[in-house]
Amino acid sequence: MPIKAHNLVGIVERYYSPLRYIYYIITKELLDISKDIALQMAFKVINDSVGPNGLIPTLLVFRAYPRIVKSNALNPTVIKQVVALKKAIEEVKKLRAKR
After folding, report:
1. Which of 15, 49, 76, 95 is 20 to 30 A from 56 (CA-CA)?
2. What is the pLDDT of residues 55-86, one digit of tens each?
3. What stretch of H or E contains 39?
4. Does residue 22 contact residue 91 with C-beta atoms inside 8 Å?
C-alpha cells in the first residue's frame, strides 16, 4: 500500500478483523502450535473462503488449493489442524454472511 494512500486503510482494517479472529480460533484449538504456523493457517482460511463477490482468491491465483503440510501422511497433528481449519472456515462464512 502506498504511504499516502489514506483511502486504502479501510481495506486493511476490514481484512485484519477476521484474520485476528481466525488466528484466535486456531491458537485456542491447537495449543501446541507455533505462531508462524498458526498465522499461515489463518491466512489460508481467509484466502480459501468465498468472498462477498463469490470468488475464492486462492483458486483465482493458483487454480487449486495448495497444501500447508510437507508430508502426505495423516498424523494426529495434521488431523487436529484440519479440524481447526474447518472450524475457522465456518466462522469466516458466518462473519461474511453478517456483512
Report:
1. 76
2. 777 777 777 766 655 555 556 677 787 788 88
3. helix 35-48
4. yes
